[in-house]
Design brief:
The chain has 254 residues and is α/β, with parallel strands linked by helices. It has a single domain, classed as Lambda Exonuclease, Chain A (Alpha-Beta Complex), CATH 3.90.320. The protein has eleven helices and six strands. Strands 1, 2, 3, 4, 5 and 6 form a six-stranded mixed beta sheet that branches. Strand 5 and strand 6 form a beta hairpin. Helix 1 crosses helix 2 and helix 8 packs across helix 9. The longest helix is centred in the C-terminal third of the chain and has 28 residues. It holds the Pfam family PDDEXK_1. It comes from Microcystis aeruginosa NIES-2549. This is DNA and RNA helicase.
Length: 254
């Protein structure tokens, strides 16, 4: 393989969960359209991210708040609950929509942090979630967004591993803002590195077989136990494709 493919956390999550579904979405470009309710929620989330970004850049946000009372309530509640976010927007040691990349083998791993604080003794990643707080924080810890975001920051900075953390803020009404914080360490970094190399090695093999011999991506050995799409596929004979809003913006294979 000579091409360099750009991957984000969404690609890794789907590849680890269901390789055949990854093939359908990214190589064959098949997906289902989003329903109106999903599109509305996605639009609200985009507006909230834009609001926080403009605030960090020192740009006017009055017009955005005037158009959406719920946005104003959520922003006010978040800033009240999170002093680190509320204080000193636009300072040199913090940046909204901060992008970093790391090359591993044939892949350019790319992350975009909603907000990052780079202090003298620590670095903190913030991510805004515009849906209600998940019940199982362990699943969020295992999600490739958490793992990749911290891994890339560790690999592209000089901070000690135990000085890195990532905080998710769940801001959707009617609940008050809630946070989940994950602290990093050497053990987590080593485990993520091993799992990442394994996953990318699998992708190398799958792509080679698919491109050279038209061999479909295989199911995981324990697919019937852990894949949420397995039973639906077995019953229907087809892979249940994701809605378009679940697909990362960039398809690296087209």
């Amino acid at each position: 393989m000579s091409n360099i493919y750009r991957l984000a956390q969404g690609h890794l999550n789907l590849l680890e969960t269901c390789p055949p579904r990854f093939q359908k979405v990214y190589l064959e470009q098949l997906n289902t359209p989003a329903d109106p309710g999903q599109l509305q929620r996605q639009e609200w989330g985009s507006q909230f991210h834009l609001l926080l970004q403009q605030r960090e850049l020192g740009l006017p946000i009055t017009s955005l708040l005037r158009e959406n009372e719920q946005l104003e309530h959520c922003l006010t509640a978040l800033l009240k609950a999170a002093p680190a976010i509320a204080q000193n927007p636009g300072e040199a040691n913090r940046e909204a929509e901060h992008c970093r990349s790391l090359t591993v083998g044939n892949y350019l791993l790319t992350v975009i942090y909603d907000l990052i604080l780079l202090e003298s003794d620590r670095a903190v990643i913030f991510d805004w979630k515009t849906y209600l707080k998940p019940i199982d924080a362990d699943k969020l810890a295992k999600n490739w967004q958490t793992r990749l975001y911290l891994y890339v920051l560790a690999e592209t900075s000089a901070y000690p591993l135990d000085s890195l953390s990532m905080t998710y803020w769940f801001v959707q009404l009617p609940r008050s803002p809630e946070q989940i914080t994950f602290n990093y360490n050497r053990k987590l970094h080593q485990r993520t590195g091993r799992d990442l190399r394994r996953l990318l090695k699998d992708l190398d093999l799958y792509l080679s077989a698919y491109q050279n011999d038209l061999v479909d991506f295989p199911h995981r050995p324990d697919c019937q136990l852990h894949c949420p799409y397995y039973l639906r596929q077995e019953r229907s004979g087809q892979i249940d494709l994701p809605s378009i809003e679940d697909i990362p913006e960039i398809n690296p294979f087209v």
